[in-house]
Structure prediction request, 298 residues.
Amino acid sequence: MADAPDPPAETSPPGRGEFKVQTYGPATRALAVALRLAALLNVLYVAAHIATDIVTGSRTAPPLAVALGITLFSGGPLLLALLLGRIHRGKVKIEAHTLALTLRRERFEIPFDSIQAIRPWRVPLPGSGLRLVLGSNRSFQRRLVLRDPARLLSALGEHLPAARATLDHPALRFAEARRTHGRRSLLYLVAKYGLIPLALAIVLFRLHQYIMYGGPFGQYHLFGLGPYLGAFLMRWVGVLGALVVYAGLVRIVVEVVALGATYLLPLRAKGLRRAAEILTDIAYFVLIPAYVLVHLLA
Prediction:
């Protein structure tokens, strides 16, 4: 399957009865989940070292080590998981009497009469997934992962009454709320991972220059432009790495809490998601500057 050519690019969005999906068998899903968990555990590992340094004053997490650790051991697994998903892309089309799944080298046609139930994944990893239950309580060999599973189920409801009932599942309400209220614009990401780290790095670097060299350009006058820019680069890399770790840690906590709360209060999924995103922004855009300001004034 890996050496098959990519499908031709679409020139128009899928029709009402056609949906882009990723498909996973039990083994490939386990691999995709393991890759994401590896990235998550690395974030927790680095965060623990940074917290230890803050509390004890040690240097177990120097800036370059943090940046390389996050890039290699979190970014690497996430990139592999992304590639795995691209390899298993396909399309689902609702036809007159069947649900047709087209992959790179395979095509499946599942009669509606043979689909007894549709079970959402309780935990949306590696995405919001659906399991088709066929006759004799057998599962279809491929699980379907969609960015908007509710749209597929709504369309299927015209042929399968059980599909509409599945729309009330908390996992699907969680996915819908996250799709609607959890998306971020490019400008937001630039501010979060570009402007904020750069501004904090400039403030901290300038303070360090005053303390160590007596002025904002003291190191430049003593050692030249190369060491001066190198010192700023290390400061910026350290700040960016620490903020990426912090944002990742906050996101982990928020997603776990939001998923659990949605299972308890499924009818309030969208309100819970809005609250989760607001708390995430407060934790980043308010608490971080406040923490730096308190330490500068202490």
In short: The first strand starts at residue 18 and ends at 24. Residues 1-15 have pLDDT under 50 and may be disordered.
